[in-house]
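re: that chain from earlier
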Amino acid sequence: MDEKLIQAINKIHEPDGWVHFSTIGPDGGPHVTPLMMGIHEEGLLFSFTGKQKKRNLERDPRACVSISKPVTFGHVIVWGSVEIRHDEKAQEMWNEMIRTAFGEERFKQIYRRKLSIEQTSLGILSPSHYRIYDLD
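^ sequence. v structure.
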C-alpha cells in the first residue's frame, strides 16, 4: 500500500475506531455500514459478519471507505476492490486485527471464531485511488 495513504490513515484512525464502508447494492445504490478496520501490507482489512455486504461484494467487488477525524473536516476516502477470504493467512490477519483493536484479553474471549462464508469473513480492500483532505 502507498506510504502516504498509510500515514494519513494512521493520523486519524484508531484500531478500535469505526469507519463507514460502502458497497454497491443489488439495485445499484450504495449500501453503507459502520465497520472496524485494520491496516496490513496487503490492504485495508475489514471484519464482515453481515450477509448483504458479502453478497454485494461477490456480485461487484468495488467498495469505498470513509475515515474521518472527529470534530474536524479531516478525512481520507479510499476506493478499491475487495477480496473476501477465509484461508489460514486470512485467519492470522483477522486475529491480529482483533488483537490490535481490542487487546489480548478480549481476543482470548473470541479467539475460537473461525472465518467462514456463513459467519465472519475477512475482507481485504486493495486501494485503486484515494483522497486525503485537511490532515496537515
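The chain has a mean pLDDT of 92.
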